[in-house]
Specification:
The chain has 445 residues and is an all-alpha fold. The protein has helices at 2-32, 37-52, 69-77, 92-95, 99-109, 123-143, 150-173, 175-179, 184-213, 217-249, 253-286, 288-291, 299-313, 318-329, 352-368, 373-380, 391-407, 415-424, 432-444.
């Protein structure tokens, strides 16, 4: 309960700060009028076009709840999933669904002269233009029922306001030119400022994600910072180049310098489509055991969902979570080699030799699918004592055993009885830290 209250406070605080800035900006702009309307219109059009070209898929961190939450609830209840899938870690390109809009907003926040003529737009006007343009670009997505979460706009407003507040007062007062000038030191200052802005955005994103999902803040922040090294670096670099280009060549520099980022965005979209297709293929392959009657419907998806939740609790990186998800989806694929299915598909209670044979066959099948080598190793090491297993295999083994116990008739007492059975096996079969982490995940929901 305390975590839910704290999470609501964090989300409400971020949104409240963004709303306050937007209202202040709108009031200031309406009262004083739009300064340099041509420049504001050009950057606003760029931001709106960037939002129009955004991906229609939502970042898992920007959804209203934790991914895979439904599967986790069904695991606790012992029910069967009839759809959905395991929680998918957000790929770096998914975190920046509108990179052109982000770069345009940063460029406007860091804009000094326009074709060598000084500009006088302030922080509040920048917030107003960025918000209005982003809202205009989002309207078509709202009409299609693909509206981004409110936190997308809140983060955009706060990060742009931070960058503008660090640059515009110094530029408008002339202190920036007197202290740094227009040479390479100005570029270094802008890059340093963009680094701080990226850090601000990562802190906000991780805080919002931790508040809504309950996942540990440290790993979320680490993943956000790693994502900044990918397309985040391209966005920051393009923002600086746009601002410097407009300072020399005027507004005609905007369409010229946004082309590289557009090409990068298209490349990321293709990579994301390939990853999505690949994941769907693995998910379909994992369902073969359900279709053949070897495992209960939804078993692999529930194990994958809960394994990723435990992995998050243990602080795994995104790549490790992806490997864990694939291994959890395919952990029972070796059962297809059996002549007679195991009762209820529960491999946790099989003799060690039989369980090891199924695991080794599953590892061979996994290798044939082209998944990373770590996935096959995790699958084929499921039957080993946990001290001899890779760290990720220990998670899959414990979660699979819990799901087998909960789905069978051996523990009518439900989740508590199943967890107690796992605790009794921590001497040889299950790692105590994983079991206790699983208990915390289930208790938190």
């Amino acid at each position: 309960m305390r975590g839910a209250v704290l999470g609501a406070t964090v989300v409400g605080g971020v949104r409240g700060a963004a709303v306050a800035l937007v209202l202040a900006g709108l009031g200031h702009t309406l009262w004083n009028g739009l300064v340099e309307p041509a420049t504001a219109l050009a950057f606003g059009a760029l931001i709106a076009c960037g939002e129009l070209a955004r991906r229609d898929t939502r970042d898992v961190r920007d959804t209203g709840g934790a991914p895979g939450a439904r599967d986790a609830r069904e695991v606790r209840a012992g029910g069967d999933a009839d759809g959905g899938g395991a929680p998918r870690p957000a790929a770096p390109e998914d975190r920046r669904p509108a990179p052109l809009a982000s770069a345009g907003a940063l460029a406007y926040a860091l804009l000094g002269p326009d074709a060598a003529a000084p500009t006088h737009h302030g922080v509040l006007q920048i917030v107003t233009v960025v918000f209005a343009a982003a809202l205009a670009g989002i309207v078509p997505h709202i009409a299609r029922g693909r509206a981004p979460a409110a936190d997308h706009l809140a983060r955009r407003v706060l990060t742009v306001a931070f960058a503008a507040a660090c640059f515009q007062p110094l530029y408008n007062s002339g202190r920036l030119e007197r202290g740094i000038g227009q040479g390479p030191y100005l570029v270094l200052y802008l890059l340093l400022l963009l680094g701080l802005t990226a850090l601000c955005d990562a802190v906000l994103a991780a805080a919002l994600a931790a508040a809504r999902t309950g996942w540990p803040y440290g790993p979320l922040l680490r993943d956000e910072l790693r994502a900044q090294l990918g397309i985040g670096s391209a966005i920051c670099a393009t923002g600086v180049v746009m601002a410097l280009g407009v300072a020399v060549a005027g507004l005609w520099a905007l369409p010229v310098f946004c082309v590289p980022l557009l090409l990068t965005q298209l490349s990321f979209h293709r990579i994301a489509a390939i990853r999505t297709t690949y994941r769907q293929t693995i998910t379909s392959l994992a369902r073969a055991t359900e279709i053949a009657g070897y495992t209960r419907p939804g078993h692999s998806r529930r194990v994958a969902a809960l394994s990723c939740a435990v992995g998050r609790e243990l602080g795994l990186s995104e790549r490790e979570l992806t490997v864990l998800e694939y291994a959890a989806l395919m952990h029972d694929i070796g059962q297809l080699s059996l002549v007679d299915p195991v009762r209820a598909g529960a491999t946790a209670g099989l003799p060690p030799a039989e369980a090891r044979r199924i695991a080794e066959l599953g590892g061979e099948v996994a290798r044939q699918t082209g998944v990373p080598a770590e996935v096959a190793v995790i699958v084929e090491r499921q039957a080993d004592p946990y001290r001899e297993q890779p760290a990720l295999a220990r998670i899959v083994r414990a979660v699979n055993a819990y799901e087998d116990l909960l789905g069978g008739s051996r523990h009518p007492g439900g989740p508590l009885a199943a967890l107690e059975q796992l605790r009794l096996g921590t001497g040889r079969d299950y790692q105590p830290e994983v079991v206790e982490c699983l208990a915390r995940v289930l208790a938190r929901g």
